[in-house]
TrEMBL record:
InterPro entries xref list: Lysozyme_Inhibitor_LprI (IPR052755), MliC (IPR018660), MliC_sf (IPR036328)
Domain C-type lysozyme inhibitor: 23-91
GO cellular component: extracellular region
Domain of life assignment: Bacteria
Organism listed in the record: Shewanella salipaludis
Keyword Signal: yes
One Pfam family in the UniProt entry: MliC
Record keywords, A-Z: Lipoprotein, Membrane, Palmitate, Signal
Record-given protein name: Lysozyme inhibitor
Length: 98
């Protein structure tokens, strides 16, 4: 999904949303990953990285919230996120930027 002129969260008012919030990946707060969580079935988050925006869907898990997209994953547990973006990309760690 490509970004529109209004950014990735243009249609956020159609369903209840938490966010957007930004995650600093690997401690780099200058290039955060914006994420918004949506109250859908299944639960969804939308993340914005580079020139693309991706819907990522919640997956069953034992602990934390784990989301999986086509080539992206996002797993949040106790305030720490593990993020991968792109096929074969290395996993990054992230925390919400205050």
């Amino acid at each position: 999904m490509k970004k529109g002129p209004q950014g990735p969260f243009l249609f956020s008012s159609l369903v209840e949303m938490i966010g957007p919030m930004a995650y600093a990946c690997d401690g780099n707060a200058t290039n955060p990953l914006p994420v918004a969580f949506f109250d859908t079935e299944p639960a969804t988050l939308i993340a914005d990285r580079g020139d693309s925006v991706s819907p990522i869907f919640i997956q069953p898990g034992a602990s934390g919230a784990r989301y999986q997209g086509r080539n992206q994953s996002f797993w949040e547990h106790h305030g720490e996120a593990r993020i991968s973006w792109g096929y074969g990309a290395p996993e990054m760690s992230g925390k919400v930027v205050p």
